[in-house]
Every structure is written in C-alpha cells, then in structure tokens.
Amino acid sequence: MACAMPYPIAPGRFAMQAALVQEMPAARSLEAPEPDHASPACRDQLGRPLRDLRLSVIDQCNFRCTYCMPKERFGRDYPFLSPEQRLSDAELLRIVRAFVGLGVEKVRLTGGEPLLRKGIESLVERIAAMRTLDGRQVEVAMTTNGSLLARKARSLRDAGLGRVTVSLDSLDDQIFRAMNDVDFPVGRVLEGIDAAIAAGLAPVKVNCVVERGTNDAQVLPLVEHFRGSDVTLRFIEYMDVEGPSGWSQSRVVPSDEIRGMVERAHALLPVTRRDGETASNYLLADGSLKLGFISSVSHPFCGDCTRARVSVDGRLYLCLFATSSVDLRQHLGAARPDEAVADAVRQAWQARGDRYSELRADRLASGKRQYPTVRMSLVGG
Ligand code: SAM
Ligand code: SF4
Ligand code: SF4
C-alpha cells in the first residue's frame, strides 16, 4: 500500500496540524492508511480493488449548472427518469448490500440533487445500519448542491450521515446565480454549509469547479472565506462530461495554475493523498485551511480509481465517462437470489479496464471531435 505511516490528529486542529506537518518529511499522510478490506476476488484488470460506491438516488436537479446540466439540453421537456423507472428504496438497499458484501465500506449518495429524493433520511439510516465485512458501520456520505441543506443537515446527521460535500463555485452572488442558472442565491448555500458544520457532518468538504473566464477569480476569495473554519476546500478541473462539443480545453484551469494563485498569497505544505483519494492535498502553512486539487484533466488518477457508480435506474457504470453500463435491475426480481446482484457486479468489476482520463489527450489529439459520455447528473460525478 502506498500510504505512509499513521499520523492520527483530531480533526479541525489546524495550528497543531501545521506544526506536525513541518516536523515531518514533506508529504507524509495526516491520516491513518486505509486497511484493504476489498475482497481479493474483486479486483479489476488493472488490479484496482472495488472500495467505494457512488449511488445516484435521483437524476433530477433544482439547479442548471452551466457545466453540468446546461438549460439548452436540460429544458422543460427533458426526458428525466419517471418514478417507475427509478429504483425504490428497497431495491437500492439490495444493491448497496451486494456491494458491501464485496468489500465496499463507503457509500456516497449523489444525483442529480440527492436532497430532492423523498425520504432520503430513511435511506441514509438504512445504509448506515449495514455492517462492513469486518463488522464496522458502513460510512455514508453525500454530495449536494447545498440548496436544501440548512433545513436537512440535522436530520441527516441524526439518520447516520457521516460526511457531506457541498458544491460551491463562487462566493460572488452574481457569478453564483449565473453558474447555477436558476438565480439561486449563494447565501442559502453558505447557510447550508454552516448548518452542516453545526450538525457535526465533519469534515465538511466544499467543491469548486473552476472554469476559465467564469469563476477563476473566485479562487482566492473562497480560500479567504474558509480559512479558520473546519471546511476542506477542493478545486476541481472542469471536465469534458458532455464530450468536446460542450467543453474546451481552453476553459480548463489546470490545478497547477490554481495552486499557483493560492501560493502567491499563502505558503502551502503538501499532504500525501490516501489510497483511492482523488485530490492532491495541501495545508496553508499557518494551518488555517486544508486544500485539495482534483486534476482529472491535467494529472489523471485512473490508476487509483476504486469507485463504482450506480444510477437510480439500477445501471452500474465502471467509469464516469463510461459509454455502456450493466443492468442490475434485472437481478432484483423477487425470484432472484440476493447473490445475483453481487455476482453481476463482481463479474463486471473483474472485467473492468476503464481509464478514460488517461486516454483523453490521445483521443483529443486524434481529432475525434465528439464522443458519447454518460450524463454527469445521472451518474452523480
Ligand atoms: N447535485 C450535487 C452537487 O452538485 O453537488 C451532486 C451531483 S453533481 C453531478 C456532483 C459533482 O460533480 C459536483 O461537485 C459538481 O460540481 C461536479 N461536476 C458536474 N459537472 C462537472 C464538470 N463538467 N466538471 C467537473 N465537475 C463537475
Ligand atoms: Fe445539479 Fe449538481 Fe449538476 Fe449542478 S452539478 S446541475 S447541482 S447535479
Ligand atoms: Fe476513474 Fe474513469 Fe475517472 Fe479514470 S476517468 S478516474 S477510471 S472514473
């Protein structure tokens, strides 16, 4: 395992963290390495274990972020999945149970906007009640746009949600409203983040997708805003989820450039990434903020990709950019044994060789102007 020695530190003690990082050789891990409980049988063609499940619980959203669900494509007549096409809670739970039986320990609920799903707390509660192969509580996390979090943070925490990641692309209200494209005010998302911190959904992560010419001037204001809080702030490179037709490399701000913007104002200390973690992590040298950079375009991390994705219609996607999926719904009938889902997942994972981001440059260089990708709001990012 590539992870360094355990270095257990109470979350949120930033000053102490910085002091410890300075005593360590650069880039030691701040957190204990993850034990590898993945079933030995469940490794893919590149040796990657199946560790995490991202479960999309709804494909609809109350935002129309321009980089994810542009209004031109996701208009009033867009054929979202009907209630009959969406899996019930009982069906989703059967799928989650199969993944847990294969060694998965973390389940992230996503969407669309997961907080739009009715009874989401009950789903959280029933997943959190599951046990991992070695008898621990399954970790339940959520990625949300934060619009409904102020009123839901406490009940989600009570239901057993462990952690939350909130997407926030700008502190500037005008830019934020333009990016969500439904005129939603940034203040309500900030209230949601505060409510999540108050409810103990720690560590709260804030994700910002940086798009050149749109919100790149927001990098430093976001850093300043969250300094001294218990939030981990992560900057994400803008990805070609719609294929090259709706995306261009010139609008991607590479992580190195974003980090440079921060470094002109603050010294940074590197922190080693844990196995399977997507972000390169840093700490402001004064210990006031933990930062992550997710470089899926400039420095792809497919070699560490241990995530499976399941959409709300029961399809298993082995990559965020997959063009095909495995239908798990057919294994959910009352007459089917519970092992049928697990067998289908195991088989698919063992055959997996996906590494789209590592091949992106070649594809673009080959002049391929358009290629299909699954929609982000269906598989949940
Ligand atoms: N609606 C929830 C939210 O926005 O947090 C969850 C679903 S959303 C698809 C999950 C994540 O995907 C968000 O953090 C969002 O910023 C990110 N995302 C969507 N489109 C993206 C793109 N083109 N490039 C990079 N990240 C993207
Ligand atoms: Fe909705 Fe999230 Fe996509 Fe924005 S990024 S449109 S909030 S699903
Ligand atoms: Fe994983 Fe596919 Fe993203 Fe590579 S491109 S990190 S395989 S989801």
Low-pLDDT parts are 1-35
Would you tell me the overall average pLDDT? 87
- Major sheet, described briefly? 12 strands, mixed
What is the end-to-end distance? 26 Å
Name the beta content range: 5-15%
The level-1 CATH class = Alpha Beta
Rg, Å, rounded: 20 Å
Summed up, the helix count is 11
Query: How much helix is in the residues?
Result: 25-40%
Q: What overall form do the CA principal axes indicate? A: globular
Structural class determined from secondary elements: alpha/beta
By DSSP, the count of extended strands is 12
Detailed description of the structure:
The chain has 381 residues and is α/β, with parallel strands linked by helices. The model is unreliable at 1-35 (pLDDT under 50). The protein has helices spanning 14-23, 89-101, 120-128, 149-159, 173-180, 186-199, 219-226, 255-263, 339-350, 356-365, 376-379, and strands at residues 52-56, 106-110, 139-144, 163-167, 205-210, 232-237, 268-271, 280-284, 290-294, 307-310, 315-317, 326-327. The longest helix has 14 residues, at 186-199. It starts with 13 loop residues before the first helix and ends with a helix. Bound molecules: S-adenosylmethionine (SAM) and iron/sulfur cluster (2 copies). Residues 45-278 form the Radical SAM core domain. Catalyzes the cyclization of GTP to (8S)-3',8-cyclo-7,8-dihydroguanosine 5'-triphosphate. GTP binds at residues 54, 108, 143, 205, 307-309. One of its GO terms (molecular function) is S-adenosyl-L-methionine binding.
